[in-house]
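Sequence decides. Our protein:
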Amino acid sequence: MRPKLRTLDIRPIVYENHPYILLRDPQRLSEQQLFVPQPLAAVLAFFDGAHHIDEMPEAYRRAYQLDLPAGFVHDLAAALDEALMLDTARFHARRTQALEEFRSAPFRVPALAGAGYPADDKALWSLLQEYLEESDTAADADIDWSQPIGVLSPHIDYARGGKVYAHVWKRAAQAVREAELVILLGTDHYGDDLFTLTRQSYATPYGVLPTDTTLVDRLAAAIGEEAAFAGELRHRGEHSLELVAVWLHHLREGRPAPVVPILTGSFHPFMLNGDTPASDPTIGSVLDVLRQVMAGRRTLIVASGDLAHVGPAFGGAPLNGADRRTLRSADDELIAAMRAGDAAGFFAAIRRVENRNNVCGVAPIYLMLRLLGQSHGEPAGYAVCPADERNMSVVTVAGMVFKAPN
């Protein structure tokens, strides 16, 4: 048996004063979570499909000069298999079943309703209206639809990012109401595919936002059908599109609009292989299709992406005052590139430091800037959000509205 770990949500936690590694399935094929003692978690690296399970204790001993408790590897493998966290026939059967259920459902069920925000439409309306009324920004009027309008929105939880959400969505309210097509570009937190599509429609407590399946079909033809939908189940639980779809629907007062929900994967390979997103043929083909369908339609492009994720919660050192000033300077460089509509400059700033600040909105922001062409970004909020109880880790978020240059 050569067990292979699937792509999982893996993060360090402290439980009852002991350090663990928490394992969760981002595709939610199983609701089970596993706690692996942190000193022993390194054995997970050997669940790569290349090591036989009986070889792992010796491989671990050679790598770390430590012995594993008797039976630990077999017990861990059994627990991982039970939780569908291994790449096995059992996992593939459950995945096929889940995919059939997802595609045959009337809509994509909101994953966070009742947890991340109210499931009741009236309670949700009250919450978001409160954020909007507390914002001192004003909605842009007399929208110039000579080219698409862009919006950079956070996808952090509303409790921490509510003020920035309200700032940017209130600024873009008129464009949101007038849009005839909405392209949602969201960070795919658990997938490496450049693009992941779905023909399923996203629902919110206000109703259903219909997916433009004709456009999805054209995009799938450009990407390749198999590649375009290989990770489709990630749409089921990914929050990056859901949290902006709720704001979109709210500002449209529950009125639907044709939507194209696109999850965008990591650009990390471009930071290592000497290539750039500008020369990637798949990216070029997708952007060409989108430009063709945007022509003559009032199109709103929403990039759902947060900025930096730094500190112990993300595997880094605790932040001090100097670190925070350096972080703000790095964010300012990215914001300046966005304001100038400079996709190449934005990615160059990320690539130069190999994304050491873990900016998780790289792909959606870059792709939006490419689609907009020449544009001018107007800042609409910025916040430094705590990411652990001691405020030693932070997530930074920003909002921006993009228009044709003056």
Notes: The chain has 14 helices and 13 strands. The CA atoms of residues 20 and 37 lie 4 Å apart. Residues 9-101 form one domain. The chain has a mean pLDDT of 94.
